[in-house]
Sequence to fold (274 residues):
Amino acid sequence: MKINRVIGVFWSATGNTRQLVLNIGSGLASRVACDFQEVDFTPKAAREQTYSFQEGDVVIVGSPTYAGKLPNKILPDFQEKLKGNGAVAVAVVTYGNRSFDNSLAELKQTLEADGFFVAGAAAFACRHAFTDMLGGGRPSKEDFAEAEDFQQKLAVRLQGENPSEWSVSVPGNPEAPYYVPLGTDGQPAKFLKAKPLTDMEACTNCGICVGLCPMQSISAEHVSQVPGICIKCQACVRGCPEGAKYFDDPAFLSHVEMLTLNYASPLKENRFFL
Ligand SMILES: Cc1cc2nc3c(=O)[nH]c(=O)nc-3n(C[C@H](O)[C@H](O)[C@H](O)COP(=O)(O)O)c2cc1C
Ligand code: SF4
Ligand code: SF4
Fold:
């Protein structure tokens, strides 16, 4: 097929998905000698716009795994704001060394419903947003080397075959329920209402967290207040230059401890589907 441009579209609260989509997209664009553009789909304002693609576009679409699927508050935007119009897509999910369960299947299904031909898919094991004890340091040099190998195989497929001949099969069931987070006692950890706290002695009132919150939930007037919905994405916790944001919800902390006890090792392998 003739490729006119490669576009990387990512929702990425703590940066893993962004890094991988940009690596795959820019590398693929240089292999097939065309322009590369990026769409940061993370901020709420970016998700209020519609993005229309066309034949000749190859769109690398990335999302993290949340509770075994796509983040439920973001899924409607992936469903409604991306218009494939016969363009090609590559589905990329990241996950924090527990499991990507059904997220890649859900992303592939969503992209097909959006009007894309899916040329390939990948799931990358990365640092868990909740703790560096799971997948800390990933994506690593080795992960990027695997992403480059994937780019090369994609370039061969895109230049050789007709999109109607592709049949990419990924594990998982898009209709499956969300993973239920457990605590160290093995019981469901209920932290849906938890919100980050702020150490006001460390906070310099710089406002960075306000801009980072993909839900626009942190008050600009009082940065310690979170009047909106919190999806526990950790953008504010990891992005605060003073380390002033933290969660103290006991159920949340118990879940993080359970993950650390059970999923820190072995390190999971990345998976590629063409
Ligand atoms: C609310 C939430 C739920 C998560 N659920 C899972 C999960 O079910 N399985 C898993 O392995 N990682 C899970 N993770 C970890 C993320 O998928 C992982 O850290 C991802 O790479 C973050 O992407 P980002 O850096 O682009 O935001 C979860 C993270 C968050 C914040
Ligand atoms: S990013 Fe950190 S230091 Fe800046 S306003 Fe937010 S909590 Fe305060
Ligand atoms: S307040 Fe919640 S949703 Fe907003 S950045 Fe922080 S963790 Fe994410």
Remarks:
- The pocket of iron/sulfur cluster (ligand 3) is lined by residues 196, 212-213, 215, 217-218, 226, 230-236 (CB under 6 Å).
- Helices lie at 16-31, 75-80, 103-113, 141-160, 208-212, 235-239, 250-263.
